Amino acid sequence: EADENGFKNYCVLAYGTAEELFPYQDPLGRRIYLSESKDYYEVVGVLKFRNATAAIGGSLEAQDFKYDVYIPISTIRKSIGDLDITRRGGTFSADLIELNQITLRVKSVELVRPTADLVRKTLNVADPKKKVPQPKPGSPEVTATAAAATAHAEQNEKPPRGDVAVVVPEELLEQARVARLTLAVFMGLIAAVSLLVGGIGIMNIMLATVTERTREIGIRRALGATQKHIVLQFLVETVSLSVVGGAFGIIAGVLSPVIFVELRDILLEANPQIADALPDVAKTLEPVIVMMSIPLSFGISVLVGVVFGIYPAIRAAKMDPIEALRHE
């Protein structure tokens, strides 16, 4: 806001523009020349990579934000005025410089529609999806509609404006919802299979342990240990095994994103050719660790150990002490 009010010659570059103009350099503080305004602008920021948007049902044009340059509108108006005058073949043409599009970005998909409704209310734009029912001629609703129109005129309320349209990419929202649902189901299946395989592995280990310690179980039963004591002993061992495995898994999960980012940055600096071959998403990908997932995953690991450790523990507890003592 201060830059706009002060008519500062500042600009913000898109990710692709910064790479094109200042490859392997820090563009902050550098100056670029724009032929349209015939002036230099100091770079004060670089945007992160942003995917191009496809045309959605004819209501939203395809846009590529990779090579954009953003400058305050007050600065460009001061530089070239309110008219963009061009000369072609001895004739002059002038285009009015005006704000014709505003792109709003929300924090989550759930806020898209409420934000669109708020913008429509602020700009007094009618929602095209809300159709006003038309009453039949001669019905009492016609009189009521006329009375409402008169009251509307008396209150000097402005009718919905038609020169402004609020476009909500409904298809993109639906695609995002389906993609999130598909990803959640896919990751859930992978997690379920992984937990099942891990649980079966724990159960097999404990069954082998029970077989190897048959004489120990018989001796404990002969000395007065009850079935409850045997079950508790093997459940504690199973939970301990799950706790150790869960701890190693959490450590690996926390360190893996950090190692990935460090190796990627080293690779980008050491070998520019490989860096150019990588997709833009891989260059700017920043993994995020959700702290709530750490205790949740640890609890699930312990729960899996308890569930799959019940059968070996019960099998050990139900052994005949005499047969267990005879086991070689």
Task: Summarize the structure in words.
- The protein has 328 residues and is α+β, with helices and mostly antiparallel strands.
- It folds into 3 domains: 2-96, no CATH class; 109-154, no CATH class; 170-326, no CATH class.
- The chain has 12 helices and 6 strands.
- It has helices spanning 2-5, 15-21, 73-80, 112-123, 140-154, 170-212, 214-222, 227-270, 272-277, 280-284, 293-317, 321-326, and strands spanning 10-13, 31-34, 39-46, 69-70, 83-88, 91-96.
- The chain has a 4-stranded mixed sheet with strand order 2-3-1-4. Strands 5-6 form a two-stranded antiparallel sheet.
- The radius of gyration is 34 Å and the shape is elongated.
- Residues 140-156 have low confidence and may be disordered.
What share of residues is helical? Answer: 55-70%
Strand order of the largest sheet: 2-3-1-4
Mean pLDDT: 78
Q: How far is it from the N-terminal to the C-terminal residue, by CA?
A: 84 Å
Note the run of SSEs as H and E.
HEHEEEHEEHHHHHHHHH
Query: Uncertain spans, ≥5 residues at pLDDT below 50?
Result: 140-156
With helices defined by DSSP (H or I, 4 residues minimum), what is the helix count? 12
Question: Which class best fits the helix and strand makeup?
Answer: alpha+beta
- The total beta strand count reads 6
Cα-atom radius of gyration: 34 Å
For the sheet with most strands, the description reads:
4 strands, mixed
